[in-house]
Amino acid sequence: MRILIIGCGRVGAGLAKTLLGRGHSVTVVDKDPLAFEKLGDKFKGQTIVGIGFDRDVLLKAGIERVDGVAAVTSSDEANVVASRIARDIFRVPRVVARLYDVRQAEIYKRLGIQTIAPTGWGINRIADLLLYSPLEIVFTLGSGEVELVEAEVPSLLVGRTVRDLTVSGEIHVVSITHDNKTFLPTPGTFFRENDLLHLAVLATSTNRLKELLGY
């Protein structure tokens, strides 16, 4: 995947190296050319000096072709502007913004922009939000410890029960939507083809959920 990172502080640099290490194409934008020193001599991605919400800078960084944008500067305002431009103007599929103001974070979550608060973010967590996953994160609770995720029931679970997808204290099926009708299941509810599931899952148990779903 092609990822654009705006801001090359400790988080931005760490995220860039993490994504590059996972085999993705990375471009980093920062207004301070000295900031790129944090990337180290072995960094193979692209670096661009400029303001992260300047249209010309974003076009130079290839924002029209990226799969995800992470705005992780030290300024909430800059991150919000860059995220909205990426989401609303360039239609970038995945946008994550680092915000210190929790009130703003909640507002932008409702607008479809994933936000990471300073008490809840982590480099690997941001990377996971940027990269494709068959699990769609609908909402995060607390400081990101619990996620509400959406997923279609896989064929291997059709005919099985909610109990088979429940891990006490880690994974719980909150609701099932079938034929445009949503209901609260019981442990004995059977999964049917084309069911849409909403699950509450610990962020640390996401990989376990993927295994149960056969992803």
Largest pleated sheet: 6 strands, parallel
CATH architectural designation of the largest domain: 3-Layer(aba) Sandwich
Helix content: 25-40%
Structural class: alpha/beta
CATH topology assignment of the largest domain: Rossmann fold
Radius of gyration: 19 Å
What do the pLDDT scores average to? 88
Q: Tell me the series of helices and strands, N- to C-terminal.
A: EHEEHEHEHEHEEEEEH
The number of distinct structural domains comes to 2
**Major sheet: arrangement of strands:** 3-2-1-4-5-6
Reading off the top of the CATH hierarchy, the class of the largest domain is best stated as Alpha Beta
What is the CATH superfamily of the largest domain? NAD(P)-binding Rossmann-like Domain
- What is the number of E strands? 11
Percentage of residues in DSSP E strands: 25-35%
Report the uncertain regions: none
Distance between the termini: 19 Å
Tell the overall outline.
elongated
Secondary structure tally, helices = 6
Structure described in brief:
This protein is of the alpha/beta class and 215 residues long. It contains six helices and eleven strands.
Please explain how this structure is put together.
- The chain is an alpha/beta fold and 215 residues long.
- The chain folds into two domains: 2-132, 3-Layer(aba) Sandwich (Rossmann fold), CATH 3.40.50.720; 147-213, Regulator of K+ conductance, C-terminal domain (Alpha-Beta Plaits, 2-Layer Sandwich), CATH 3.30.70.
- 27% of the residues lie in helices and 27% in strands.
- The protein has helices at 10-21, 55-60, 76-89, 102-110, 123-130, 206-213; strands at residues 2-6, 25-30, 46-49, 68-71, 94-98, 114-116, 136-141, 146-152, 171-178, 181-183, 196-202.
- The strands form two sheets. It has a six-stranded parallel sheet, sandwiched between helices. It has a five-stranded antiparallel sheet with strand order 7-8-11-9-10, with no helix packed on it.
- Helix 3 links the parallel strand 4 (68-71) and strand 5 (94-98).
- The longest helix is centred in the middle third of the chain and has 14 residues, at 76-89.
- The chain is elongated and about 60 Å long.
- It starts with a strand and ends with a helix.
- The mean pLDDT is 88.
